Amino acid sequence: MAVAAVPAGLFDCRDSFSSTLESLAEADERIVTVVSDSVGSSKLVNFGKRFPRRQVNVGIAEQTVVAVGAGLANGGKVPFVSAASCFLTGRALEQIKADVAYSNVNVKLVGQSSGIAYGELGPTHHSIEDIAWLRLLTNLTIIVPADPWQTEAAIRAAAAHDGPVFVRVSRMPVPALERTNPEFRIGRAETLVEGSDLAIIANGTMVHRAIGAAHLLATEGISARVVNMATIAPLDEATILAAAATGAIVTVEEHNVRGGLGGAVAEVVTTHTPVPMRILGFDGFQPTGSVEFLMERAGLTADGIAAASRQVLARKSR
Length: 318
Fold this sequence. Notes:
The strands form 2 sheets. A 7-stranded mixed β-sheet has the order 2-1-3-4-6-5-10, sandwiched between helices. The chain has a 5-stranded mixed β-sheet with strand order 7-9-8-11-12, with helices on both faces. It contains 12 helices and 12 strands. It has 2 domains: 13-169, 3-Layer(aba) Sandwich (Rossmann fold), CATH 3.40.50; 190-316, Rossmann fold. It is of the alpha/beta class.
């Protein structure tokens, strides 16, 4: 696939991932990278040049890449295992379950080019089930950062965390989000827009679109809170319950509508404070097409999120 230029004002979070990892590796000789013929797509070419003895390329063998990562962790290294998320989590799910999560080893899994970033390559390359599969695994921390700053913070937090972590990194350009007091903590969500009529809970590439929806709704006198739920496991239940106190919730994710962020939020809401909800995402296998075509088709735009918000507010008022 041809590499497109990143538009001005937008950022490829893989750049933040790779530069942060190089910075960490300078200070910690235990950090190594393990890839499955994905050096370029993981943006780890420069890492390999700088630390040639600390990069292992196993070729197109995702099960092996996870197993090698687990072995290196057992040997005292801090391996960052990086590969396309669709193949890393699909082909190597058993190894992630048994060698990493069940064994509770210090492996950092990085699912690159997640969601529908490979839109034109079709359903085999769409990664819209990965969170659902991984969310079932005990011990595995799951992070879906929303912008370059949070990607850096997530990688630093993953390196410092003693235990297995999965970080989902997109290749789709996103803007840097505005924050008053930026702070990232595993298991803690951040509220980016205050609101009282409903809450929009999003993560990853959907956060800036959720903020756009909140701005659209504000012109109609609707006060929408926007929560960036970057950590899926462990989940910030307190922030979810606070969101439920608005009386309505819309979740937005670049993932299947079953088993991901929406499912996680619904589990908390339905067992504590049931309120009207709408889960926005992809429903089933998606066709081959551009990212924007697939996003618009699923209503994953500022306009689509705003429309879903109006619908859930109508249910709230009944």
